[in-house]
Amino acid sequence: MSQAALDTLLHALSGPLTLVDVGARWGVLGRWAALGEKARIVGFDPDAEECGRLNAVAPPNVRYVAAGLADTEGTRTLHVAKQPACSSIFPPVRALVEQYPALAEVEITHTVEMPCRPLDDLLRAEGIGPVAAIKLDTQGSELAILKGGVGALAGCALIDVEVEFNPIYSGQALFCDVDRFLRDHGFVLWRLENLAHYSTQTVPAAFSQMIFHADPSPAASAQVANGQVFWAQAQYVRASYPRTGADSLTRAEAIPAAVLAGLYGFWDLALELVRKTGDADLLETLQGQLAPAA
User: Fold this and answer.
1) Would the N or C end of the chain have less CB density within 10 A of its end CB?
2) Ranges of each domain in the chain
């Protein structure tokens, strides 16, 4: 992250950004802290005790709300795992728990009945909105929560969501389902982070090479040992943001999105967003701040 460029964009911002973290056990997304008082951050988690602990130490611009979320109002069974952050409204796939060492912490210790509400209803009740970004990590229920937050999605610049390519929990939605839903609501995939693989054992000879193309920049590669790919963190942005999207954007549309893009290190996207505003002076300033040191 270029702090100088981020500061420039924050100065151009007309008001604070509202950011929502769904599944905020241990605290809201750390990378958002760089926004300081330019952000109003709300974290949701069903564990009232955890929310109380977090609120006791939270900075003034961050608060936590104890609530369960779903696509419709009603009660869901929460399967509480050995590692509470792995708890889900879906039971884990039994064979994974029993045979994959890394997933032993998903073992269920007990269940509780959890009242749930749609995200849009809860945001209205809490006086929260409009929302610039949503992060979701709820162990398989992300799609249901997104379906209950269509109103919030309408004004969102960025969705940061955990997605599974193969199920860890029985009955959960997979990447293909989440991807289709978000595309149908005006988003495109920008980046995948943290491609997680799991295996029943470690076999030293088992590896594959992953190549990351970033044309026109040089390609990079990484070696992955063992296992099947299960999940990643996916970042989606509005389809109007890339060069293939809208020809132009207003400052009110582009600057908040550029701030978030820069915060995530997507500086090429941030520059594209500023270009679409027609503000040549701001674009030139950012390009200078992002240029390699001589």
Assistant:
1) C
2) 3-73+118-200+229-285
